[in-house]
Amino acid sequence: MAYLSLQGINKIYPNGFHAVHDFNLDIEKGEFIIFVGPSGCGKSTTLRMIAGLENISSGEFLIDGKRANEMGPREREIAMVFQSYALYPHMSVYDNMAFGLSLQGVDEDVIEKRVLDTARILGLTDYLDRKPRALSGGQRQRVAVGRAIIRKVGIFLMDEPLSNLDAKQRVTMRSEITDIHRKVGATTIYVTHDQTEAMTMADRIVVMKDGYIQQVGTPYDLYFKPVNVFVAGFIGEPPMNFVTSTVQNGSIQIGEATLSLAELLTPDVLASYEGKKMVFGFRPEAIELGNKSDSYVLNAEVELTELLGDNTNVYVDINGTKSILKVDPHNTPKMDTKIDFSIPYSAVYLFDGETENVIETTKKSY
Q1: Which of left, alpha, beta for 206 (phi over 0: left; psi -120 to 50: alpha)?
Q2: Which letter does DSSP use for residue 92 in this model?
Q3: Is the Cβ–Cβ distance between 229 and 355 less than 8 Å?
């Protein structure tokens, strides 16, 4: 296991493109950290700088307190699993896993023991004689993971390792990788654009956008305590609903409803936003159909419903604003009808209309 520290890391390419801005993060030994964000946000570039595959333009990268900026990939004792399996097609599973150790001159008896031990952890014992073409996508990915963990290094880096798998295989591999991490205990940094992977696997998540860190926190913190509109909209499926309105006389207008913000903000904060734009946010699953107490009540027209089994997604129009509601499948409203729905005060998020940063409210349930 290793402790990592990234201090003021920047990546600027020769053409002037600034891919990563002032990246600061301390990673504890044995942590499972996930970098998440849309394509082009800088997450893979940051991972490649940690691996030594990209030069760091400025800032300092430390491994166990030792500066690692100038270290080559091998000196960093890092194992990496790529998006493509990168297996040798002419080699058996056994030889694919053993190859790196053979290059290091490790004794054959030691190699055999480590391959068999690793195969047992990964459920590959019965496949050691097979070539990659005879394996499923999930099995090939396990071989790629096995080739990394067999080296017994302190740091594992994984760059979108599940993106080539189908939905069912991804669910299975998520739990398998999490289980492997618990057994091996190495510090793991994992890159994905899939927020479901991030939420289900990580100890902490780093949300990135346009090369900047937006928020670092546990899955719980990012879901229930987002710091801005981007994080609130990126984490969660379906995403959080947002309505922008101007504060007038301490209230905002959403559709036909006038909502008093005195229920959520202190008088001083509310007065500071008079005449300014504010973003009103609520998660699809936070609502209840009908009129409830201690809630804001909105009226909407049902445009589309999607039965998903355990719930129904209801797409509604609130006087020109589109939103998604998640409701009980046994109580799904009909399309082209008008409905009232309630949002508890404790489930409402408010964001500054200019900075898009969260505004602290007085009635959060957490």
Answers
A1: beta
A2: -
A3: no
Count Cβ atoms below 10 Å from residue 5 Cβ, excluding itself: 17
Among residues 99, 108, 96, 103, which one has the least CA distance to residue 139?
Answer: 96
Work out whether strand 338-344 and strand 295-307 pair parallel, antiparallel, or are unpaired: antiparallel
Query: Dihedrals φ, ψ of 290, to 5°?
Result: 95, -175
pLDDT digits (tens, 9 = 90+) for 18-39: 999 999 999 999 999 999 999 9
Q: Is the backbone of residue 139 left (phi > 0), alpha (psi -120 to 50) or beta?
A: alpha
Query: Is the model's pTM score more than 0.70?
Result: yes
Sheet holding 32-36, edge to edge: 78-81, 155-159, 187-192, 32-36, 204-209, 212-217
* DSSP-derived 3-state class of residue 163: coil
Q: What is the CA radius of gyration of the chain?
A: 25
Query: In terms of residues, how long is the chain?
Result: 366
Encoded amino acid at 328, one letter: D
Residue 260, beta-bridge partner list: 251
